[in-house]
Amino acid sequence: MLRKAIFPLGGLGTRLYPLTVETSKAVVRFLNRPLIEFVIVKLASQGVTEFYMGVSGYFNYKEVYDYFGEGLKIRLKYGFPDVRIRYQPNEDSVGNADSVRIIMEYYDIREDVLVAQGDLLFDIDLKSFYSMHKSKEAFMTIAVKLIEEDRDIRQFGVADIDKDWRVRRFVEKPRSVEEAPSRYVNTGIYLLSKEFREFISSPKAVEYRERGMMDFGQHIIPLAIESGLPVYAYELTGYWFDIGTPERYLAAVFYMLRHLPPEELEAKTLIRGVKVQGKSRESQELHKEILQSISKGEIKVDGENLIGRHVKIGKGISLANSVIDNYTVVNNNVTINYSVVMDRCRIDSGTTIEHSIIGRHVKIGKNVRIENSVIGDDTVIGDGATLRNVKVWPHREIPSGVYIENMIIR
Questions:
Q1: What is the pLDDT of residue 180?
Q2: What residues have CB less than 8 Å from 59, skipping those under 6 apart?
Q3: What is the CATH number of the domain that holds 21?
């Protein structure tokens, strides 16, 4: 039985800016919950009881600890009585493998562990994964995903695998398609044998650490292969998303919204294409109001939509593939299309939001138009503003009536 999982959460998450300027990427709001909560629940349901967060830096630690604590919320909310969450000590790491080393030494871990990056969403059969790992007597087993021909292989680490699924070599972000040895890419999910702790403290690994070379894909996996250790690949057939950019974030949101059953979203189906969250009496009354407005044509819906707890929605609304998080107010004549609006936002009348992500606690004025943009937390956008292909850092104020295109506002 595999009991322990380590999540290296270091790094600033710069590709997801401005959503991660002040927030750990692990707890960015995703389908109205912290992102990593989906993975914790998925693994806990398969027997993992000890989760170690490889936090680095103040915001990274504070945001994760303040939400999850030591696991009480997960235990109470989902009924996993044995789940515990622990944290990396205040020791700087020089890569995700170094974070794993620090945690294994600090907590004296001397057994097989699962390692997964903190900005992933995935569905994996742990029993099958671990069974293969043990049957091959592997030092490390890498979950790999077969990538479609239309996706750019150059952004991934690519495995060269023999017929027995042993990894012969590993090419991190090949410069060309021809350089890629296969279309099996590294998912950032690993099973490490208990011998990994000794390996990561070996003279060669210490030399790598002193040179700042402690990334699994770039350094540690190739080192293990060069050292003759048995490194194997396991094909991941379930979904897998690297939530590294706003585009990937939106793609993952709407894939999960289409494919997850309502109970995994902590929601119920209100009407076809609309799922709602909240079980309180007040939530139930709001759900009735929303349903009545839909039946009267006052709210038009298309695609898949998720509405959070205590959300108030006006009339003349158009929702098409949208997620609206808790405590948000949407006034009359608003259009939201292929977009996510995070919690405690206020959207005034006549506003249109398309292909965008709106951060937490944002106020958007009347007759605003936002397209292909990412708005950071606690931003205020004045009446009549237009933003196209814009990223706005947290706590900024956008004046009324401005037209902004192709800019980053820090």
A1: 82
A2: 22, 23, 24
A3: 3.90.550.10
